[in-house]
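To whoever is on call:

I kicked off a structure prediction for a single chain this morning and the downstream step that reads the tokens threw a length-mismatch warning. I double-checked the sequence; it's 265 residues and nothing unusual in it as far as I can see. Pasting both halves so you can look.
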Amino acid sequence: MFRLVSLNLNGIRSAASKGFQEWTARSGVDCMGVQELKAQAADVAGVFDEVAGLRGQFHHAQKKGYSGVGLYSRHEPSEVIVGFDGGEFDGEGRYVEHRYDRPGRKLSLISCYFPSGSSGDDRQAAKFRFLALMAEHLQRLRSAREFILVGDVNIAHTERDLKNWKGNLKNSGFLPEERAWMTRLLSPEGGGLVDVYRHLHPEAGDEGYTWWSLRGQAYAKNVGWRIDYHLATPGLAATARAASVYKDSWFSDHAPLTVDYDFTL
């Protein structure tokens, strides 16, 4: 069994102070994609480049205290790819890919942090640019290899994926255009990918939430959103056996999303 986790840390130093490294050591993780490091290479080197025996590779944002992703693994990848668009979004530290290729198999694991558009029209426009580029990138990738992308997608796809859907119809993260993008990505004639948690838990509601606002006791009341995903090509998605959201400890405003797959690297 291969255990893969996605976790937005909302600052790796902050999450470390709240025990995310100890949780990782206890959880039997084989690979973990993390997002929103809010740290530079110098902050990570010698401190966070290895967690619980997992070795990490990272994509840092140029701007200090902003974005950044990492991918930790027990297994040595055949190739590491940092960045995906060669331009605007690579400067924001949003994509790292491990390839585990061998004769007869091309397989990638990806940690990705999609932009939020909630701070204003400029960032929402950037988010739409990102979505267009990412859809093209994933289409190309799918034509060449199997993969699982884990990360904070910053989109709740359906009404089941957030508590207060009626009040968020005009808010970033639940806009009709964003949800339509996700629908296309998950359609056989579109991106052809599988939302693994939803595949395993088709009726899940509030137990699937992975993010809560820090305002208004949202976590205590479970007024949350499901915006963290495992997005997999169908062949890998079919090997998923169990998926869960860990809520017993609080490292971040996001919870770890764990999926067990029946494959080996």
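Update from on-call: the warning came from a stale cache, not from the record. Cleared it. Sanity check on the structure: The first strand starts at residue 2 and ends at 8.
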